[in-house]
Amino acid sequence: MIFTVAHQKGGVGKSTIATNLSVEMGAPVIDLDSQHSCYLFSVLRKNEQGKELTVFTPETISEIENVLDDLKSEHVIIDSGGYDNDVNRFALLISDIVVTPVSPSQIEVFGLMKFSEIVTEAKEYNSSLKVYVLINNADPRSSGENRKLQEFIEEDDTFQLLNTKLFRRADYRRAYAEGLSVCEYNSGGKACREIRALIKELLALM
Ligand SMILES: Nc1ncnc2c1ncn2[C@@H]1O[C@H](COP(=O)(O)OP(=O)(O)OP(=O)(O)O)[C@@H](O)[C@H]1O
Ligand SMILES: [Mg+2]
């Protein structure tokens, strides 16, 4: 299965989520982000013996196709870059499940409206494309913020909302800095519980 973390808006948590999914699912990453945040994460975890993460950095559609042709794992995670281009649109066409992280605020709703146009165009080629919005960076103290976003998603038939939410937690930043998943960093933490719940929900969608 191809799980793609995608949103044309930058800084919404795509690479943070992609690295955690890949470590916890034992799946390689196709890193389409020009900043190569997933590749750099794999370099940070080089001293984690026996836990190397495979990260591919194809730059063209045909290079992505070559990576997929040679892939032996059951699942692969694509970290799609935070902009709209041919390569990132191609990722939408080949995905089984697309996860779009957004934080619950009005400005993020506008970003999602733009992404909705991109998804609608992609659906002309991949009619079974399903895009699931994942609330990320939610404020643990104010759950009321999520309501506007939820209303927008309910009205827009492009997206479905995942039940799992990821809250704003220092573990996400700290774990990345050490090249670890949040579960490797703090197995008893809330961030780890959230990532495990996310994986369970995604696998149940298949
Ligand atoms: N749930 C969270 N809690 C705390 N910090 C988070 C959370 N999710 C993401 N961040 C932080 O937000 C910043 C942006 O995250 P990230 O780089 O994963 O976003 P991105 O969508 O991949 O960005 P880009 O579009 O630039 O590639 C990082 O500093 C990351 O640590
Ligand atoms: Mg990124």
Description:
The chain is of the alpha/beta class and 206 residues long. The protein has a single domain, classed as 3-Layer(aba) Sandwich (Rossmann fold). Helix content is 46%, strand content 17%. The chain contains nine helices and seven strands, in the order βαβαβαβαβαβαβααα. The protein has helices spanning 14-25, 37-44, 61-70, 86-94, 106-123, 146-155, 170-177, 182-185, 190-205, and strands at residues 2-5, 29-31, 55-56, 76-79, 97-102, 131-138, 159-167. It has a seven-stranded parallel sheet with strand order 3-2-4-1-5-6-7, with helices on both faces. Bound molecules: adenosine-5'-triphosphate and magnesium ion. Adenosine-5'-triphosphate binds next to helix 1, strand 6 and helix 7.
- The rounded Rg comes to 16 Å
Overall pLDDT score: 92
Estimate the helix proportion, in percent: 40-55%
Number of helical segments?
9
Class per helix and strand makeup: alpha/beta
The CATH superfamily bears the name P-loop containing nucleotide triphosphate hydrolases
> How far apart, in Å, are the first and last alpha carbons?
9 Å
Shape: globular
Assembly category: single chain
CATH architecture: 3-Layer(aba) Sandwich
* Low-confidence regions: none
Order of helices and strands: EHEHEHEHEHEHEHHH
Bound molecules: adenosine-5'-triphosphate, magnesium ion
List the defining traits of the structure above:
alpha/beta; 206 residues; binds adenosine-5'-triphosphate; 9 helices; 7-stranded parallel beta sheet; Rossmann fold; binds magnesium ion
